[in-house]
Amino acid sequence: MTTTTVTTAPREIRPRVPSTRVLLAVNPFVEAILRSPLHRLLSKQVLLLTYTGRKTGARYTFPVGYSREGDTLTIVSTRHWWQNLRSGAPVIVRLQGRRRTARADVIAEPDAVLAEVERLVARYGRRDVSRRMYLALDTTPPPTRDELARALRGWVVIHLRLEAGAAEGERDDDKQ
Fold this sequence. Notes:
- With 176 residues, the protein is of the alpha+beta class.
- The protein contains four helices and nine strands; from the N terminus they run βαββββββααβαβ.
- It has helices spanning 20-35, 110-124, 126-133, 145-151; strands spanning 13-15, 46-52, 59-65, 67-69, 72-77, 90-95, 98-107, 135-137, 156-163.
C-alpha cells in the first residue's frame, strides 16, 4: 500500500502595491483625474495626499487608497513616506473634489496594525479590504490571524482626522 502525503501550498498574502516604476508612470494621470471634474471616477476610493517632508521641507503630493468613517480617513501603507506624518503632522487631502486639511496619526506597532486591519475586514469584508489596502488576501478560506500578522509586517495604518476650517469647502483647481 502506498501512502501519499498532501501538503498545501503556502497562502498567498502579499502586497499588491505596484512597483515604484509603475507608480511614477501612472500617478500623474490619477492625480490629473482627481483634480478634474472627472474625479468621481476614482475619488470614492482614492484621494490626493499632500505633506511636507520633515528633512527636506519639500511638498509631496500623490494618490493613495483610503477608507472613510465619518471625519477619519484610513490609509494602509508599506512605503516609508509615512515617517513624515508622525506626531500629528498636518496634511492636505483632495477628497472627493474638495481640498481639506487633516492631522495624521500613524499606527506602526504590529499588534495595533493587525487589530486595525481586522477591524477593517469586519467592516468591509475581505475582498473589499483587499482592494482598498492593496493587499492580496487569499480569501477562500480566509487567512488565519497568524498568517495575516505575518503578512502585515512592515505595514502601517495612518488615520487622517479631517479638520473643519478654511480649506474645507474650497475648490482647489490649482496645483498645491
